[in-house]
Amino acid sequence: MSKRKIVSFLLLLLLTVSVFIASIICHMLGEVYYKSQCRINTSVLDKINLARIMMRKNLHTNKTSEAIATDLGVSYSWFRKAFKENIGISPAQYQLQLKLSKAKELLTNTDDSKLEIAYQ
Description:
This protein has 120 residues and is mostly helical. Helix content is 82%, strand content 0%. The chain contains five helices and no strands. Helix 1 (3-57) crosses helix 2 (65-72). It starts with a helix and ends with a helix.
């Protein structure tokens, strides 16, 4: 190989490596930015998910959305707004859907009467 070809090859290699490194740096910066933005929403989502678990566990006790917000240490207005923004429905509607799903499951899979299921 001639000197020119070797120099051209090395320059092309250097350009390729620098583009590769630049793309890795851009990717890393994007990851850092994404994680910094998610940190804010993660605590909200954690509270919403905890509320959903509490609703499922307390399905038979008729615990209100207000009581769940209090247990989470947030105001009911904040809780209702955050819940609706993240889940798409209000906490009360979510609880109603859980109750209806449980009733459907019991009607389909048990021999319990409708009256017994209604009082569960």
